[in-house]
Amino acid sequence: MRVCVVGCGVVGSFLSLFLKERGVDVTAISRRRRYPRIGLIQSIMQKHPADIYAARRTRELYLEISRRYNIDDVLTYVRSYTVVRKEKEEHVDKLVEQWKKNGVSIEKLERDSLKEIPFKHYEDEIIYLCTNDTIVRIDKLIDKIWNIVNVKKHNVEIKGSIENVKIYVDGRELKKKFDKIVICCGSWTRSLLRKVGITLPLLPYKCQAGLFALSTRDSNYILYDYVNKTYVRPCGELSKLRIGREKLMVAGNGNTPPMEPEEKAEVEPWFADEIIPKLRRRFEKVRYLKGSAGFCDTTPDARPIIASFGSLIAVSGFDGYGAEIGPAVAEIACKVILDEPLNELERSFLVDRFGTGVEASSLPEVEAHEL
Length: 371
Fold this sequence. Notes:
Blueprint (H helix, E strand, L loop, with lengths): L1 E5 L3 H12 L3 E6 L9 E3 L6 H20 L6 E11 L3 H13 L4 E3 L16 E12 L1 H12 L2 E2 L2 E5 L4 E5 L2 E2 L6 E4 L5 H6 L8 E12 L6 E5 L4 E4 L8 E2 L2 E7 L2 E4 L12 H10 L5 E13 L6 E5 L2 E5 L5 H16 L6 H4 L24
Parallel strand pairs: 1-2, 1-11, 2-7, 4-13, 11-20
Antiparallel strand pairs: 3-6, 4-6, 5-6, 8-9, 9-10, 12-16, 12-17, 12-18, 13-14, 14-16, 15-16, 19-20
Helix pairs in contact: 1-4, 1-7, 2-7
């Protein structure tokens, strides 16, 4: 079997590797390789049962692949704090039971333990402490996979129709014939598919984060702040540095309105003004140093889709949490390509759950991994 994978971010890279390991003739093409050298969150603490399943499997895959190809220090275990309002306690307690069954070490903190927390908290809040959350060095994995698969760097377009998809590389038609063509281009997937008359419930948007100096005695933790709708996480080796009495951490707070992706994403001018007051509810001192932005895409339920149209397959809509569940979804997509059976949780990632002709017109109110 010959398969062309267009777009080698997290999902496309792992899918290309899985296909190659299964003996498939893979041609992998991507415009660029760009991943932060400070690691990304990889948490099993998801909300949907299939996402919990995929996050657990993704962690297994990270460990398996790092051992198989001798990649050092891929996962770093850190503690994380989940902060919710008291009215959410019963809801989160039910999720905690599911998380524990999937290997998460997490407990609700009692009053005596709260004085050890490295950020401000309030009477109307419940705080859960997880001691085995992880940061994944996705850049190390992607670098290795690109070398194994021999990913080619080119600009790609698809033209024609569903029945006759043609691939153009840097403006020239690729003459090699493929049994399957897989589009894994993130925020660009929607516009690529429209060139061959395919409409899917995908919506691109800009995602933003910033590097901040925060007054916290410790920076080796993740904060999921569902009260202020922000997150804070370590920033690799930079987290060991200080600026005055503050430590460096990465923080973000949601997304922009829907927009088509651009070649270069710029941080919106209002980003710092919006997030700084939220962070000040947790930290006495907050200094914004610089920001970064990129583009993601999502679906009406904020969960990814695998869509098949004969020889053309699309895998997209990860809503910014590709590093958390992407490799497991790539493994499911590999089964779809090879026409292997799926279990019930795996089938929940198929686009069939939306029916036919569904389009996305607005971002979901709550992301799939938000409580």
